[in-house]
Amino acid sequence: MSLSAVASAAAASTSLSSVNPRRSSPASRVPAPLRRSLPWRPLSSSSSSRSLLRPVSAMASPRTAAGEAASRKNLIIFDAEEDLAASLAKRTAELSARFAAERGTFTVVLSGGSLVKALRKLTEPPYLEAVDWSKWHVFWVDERVVPKDHADSNYKLASDEFLSKVPIPAGQVYAINNALSAEGAAEDYETRLRQLVKDGVIGMSPVTGFPKFDLMLMGMGPDGHVASLFPGHPVVHENQKWVTFVKDSPKPPPERITFTLPVINSSACIALVVTGAGKAGAVHKALSEEQNTSDLLPVEMVSLQDGELTWFTDKSAVSMLSSL
Ligand SMILES: O=C1O[C@H](COP(=O)(O)O)[C@@H](O)[C@H](O)[C@H]1O
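# LXAUTJHC complex -> structure
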């Protein structure tokens, strides 16, 4: 798929998005080559370097359950990682202002990995001065059970690249207790989350009964894993606990704690940052229409009950999506 194909898909859909979907199916108005396998309806295309797309209503698809009607999914494709980072910073700052005004706090959940570098523009003007960092409460969607100064620590990565550069109060940064076993650290983290819900720092989803974080900033591995929920691992199906653990992660280090899918899926907003050709296969499986519901990757199981999931991608990551 060339960029021009993406751009023309976006151009086609810009006019489509003005059509009332109740009167006319957007998909039926897409030019024939795009129609058959175009699950995403572009919202706008303000420049050749960006395409903003939203799934057609049918994308809420057979695999979604009742109650997910309020969920929204967007796909943004950037020419350059620099543009992605700028857009991610802008979106995060907007959400920070919105939730701080609405709730008095902004609960932000970080992953490790490549996501962290994409946050760098938040540490620069205008965001460094404009964001009310005193409202931020920071959590990890997954963490490796290693010392905080270990090269594999997601805390260390975030601290070095992001948290040390912005004035979030230290008491509002919730690292795991790495002195405990994986099981103990998961239990301890869940206990602390429950207390923060009682204290009114973290909201609760009235729909799911799980905590509702304002924004999860997450990456995805080349195998389609999110957090430390790996394909085929039984913890992917955990539906009671808020936080669980693995001791046999296929990606080192083996011992980790992770939010469970019900918690991830109760978020108000998720920004899923996925770049590079190495992730194109998982992106294709997750976003193409040819979905096999019996063999879902963890990323395919990310489906917000009542919130907005936005994929921040680049051309390489979506290069196997023939529908664009
Ligand atoms: O192990 C992990 O991997 C994923 C993906 O990392 P990436 O470098 O491929 O983006 C990350 O989201 C997760 O937090 C981390 O523990």
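# post-check
Residues 111-115, 142, 154, 218-219, 221, 228, 251 surround LXAUTJHC (CB under 6 Å).
Residues 81-103 form the longest helix (23 residues).
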